[in-house]
Amino acid sequence: MPQDALLDHCLELLSAVGRPRSRRMFGGQGLYVDELFIALIVFDRLYLKADDETRARFQAAGCQPFTYPKKGGSAVVLSYWTAPDEAMDSPDAMAPWARMAMAAALRARQAAPKPVRKRKVPAPDPAATAAAPAASAARRRTASARAKR
User: Fold this and answer.
1) Any bridge partners for residue 11, and if so which?
2) How many domains does the chain have?
3) Does residue 51 sit within a domain?
């Protein structure tokens, strides 16, 4: 199936569970449903997001993990698995698999560490900065006077 036809077909399959869209990435396509990244199309195959809770179902259905070679000969295995052949037939057949991918993506999003937001420090007021040394000197004089009493 040509790349554009496969993409259109996969978007139609995923429409059973939400509003799908695609974005080019990794030399393929990233697929989102309701702005949740749940699938990849790479090497003319659809890969759905999986995790520890869903991986066994993908394995039992005869699906394969997405892997690519790394320098040195080892392989990198990502948490995306091929969709079962029968799920590629219709949106209704894909729906349970797409829901599992969405659930895995949601769990991954919740487990990810929250980015630390840097607190903005307000710029110093030039007038207050100029007055600071005088105020500091006045405090020292007051403290010195109290100590003498």
Assistant:
1) none
2) 1
3) yes
